[in-house]
Amino acid sequence: MKKLLYLSVLLSAFLCASAFAQSNEVALTYGGQFVSGDYDFGKSGVLEANIAHRLVNGEVAGLYFELPLTWTFKNARTDPAAALHDHYTGFFFTPGVKIKVLPQLPISPYGFVGVGLAHFHNSDTDQVSYENVIDYGAGLDWKVLPLLSIRGELRDFNSGVPRMGFPNPGSRQQNVMATVGLALHF
């Protein structure tokens, strides 16, 4: 009985300490991308890894520095007028800030903004294009365990149009990505 009491106290202390010490997040999410621009892009897959560190811990909101790395795959781009078609992948890296509202509650909404670089690779011609990118959006964390949450996000990577063999009539394209996954808080 005495061992059970010690174990209960130790477990309670660990859970309380982990709740107060959660200043880092690591997330892995998966979903789809919907690109809007001057061409028909169709839909593609998205895989995102995200690391964030809390800078300010407030009662109402927390301020985080985040490092998202997003990979898009199976992208197709078509220009019906010129009979052009190609396939490409994209990597987006946009360090930024995130504000999480009511981070201590089981459901926490958040918004973010960042700037960085997009790397596009045309798998048909092996051409590469680097473009500047602005990242913004919102998400929701739903805590299912003290250190684990289910995460849903909607991100828009507003990037330059990849220069890879197509005429470039516009200067920007919207790379909207919806993802769902898991986040570990420690």
TrEMBL record:
Keywords per UniProt: Signal
Top-rank lineage group of the source organism: Bacteria
SUPFAM superfamilies named among the record's database cross-references: OMPA-like
Signal peptide: 1-21
Protein name per its UniProtKB record: Uncharacterized protein
UniProt source species: Koribacter versatilis (strain Ellin345)
